[in-house]
Amino acid sequence: MITTSNFAKSGKHPDAVAISQGVPRFYRVKRYMPLAPPRSLLKAKDPELFDREYRKQLDSLDARQVAEELGPNAILLYWESFNVRCHRRLAAEWLEEKLGNVVPELGHERAESLPFSEQPSKWDAKPSTAQLPMTF
């Protein structure tokens, strides 16, 4: 079953697959760039714009081929904590819609995951001083 998580929790798992432009320095597992949003879109603080443009990116892909290339036990990783607005939930919702499979957050029931449109944005939260070092 494909699941989602973040680098801090699952970045060293052998089934981890980064779907991001940048990764932590410690990360040495698989990357899958077709699911990574472009840097220009990552800078957009407008969730509706992000949602619309990222969905266009997803819809240009073949979901069955993506799932095959990811592998049956892939853990899609990005930086954000669970239930903080993150494109990994959009990618998971897209896979669910196209393939009819449930894509939960690792360690959580699917019902615990807020839909992307309802997730609070990191831009609304207080800035955190603890960040993982990135490589691009």
What do these coordinates show?
With 136 residues, the chain is an alpha/beta fold. It is 31% helix and 12% strand. The strands form two sheets. A four-stranded parallel sheet has the order 1-5-2-4. It is globular. The chain starts with a strand and ends with a strand.
Question: In summary, what is this structure?
Answer:
Helix content is 31%, strand content 12%. The protein is of the alpha/beta class and 136 residues long.
Topology, pairings included?
Blueprint: E1 3-6, H1 7-10, E2 16-18, E3 23-24, E4 30-31, H2 39-42, H3 47-59, H4 63-70, E5 75-78, H5 87-99, E6 134-135
Parallel strand pairs: 1-5, 2-4, 2-5
Antiparallel strand pairs: 3-6
Order of helices and strands: EHEEEHHHEHE
Mind telling me the C-alpha Rg? 14 Å
Q: What strand line-up does the widest sheet have?
A: 1-5-2-4
Tertiary shape: globular
First-to-last CA distance = 29 Å
The helix/strand class is alpha/beta
What percent of residues are in strands?
5-15%
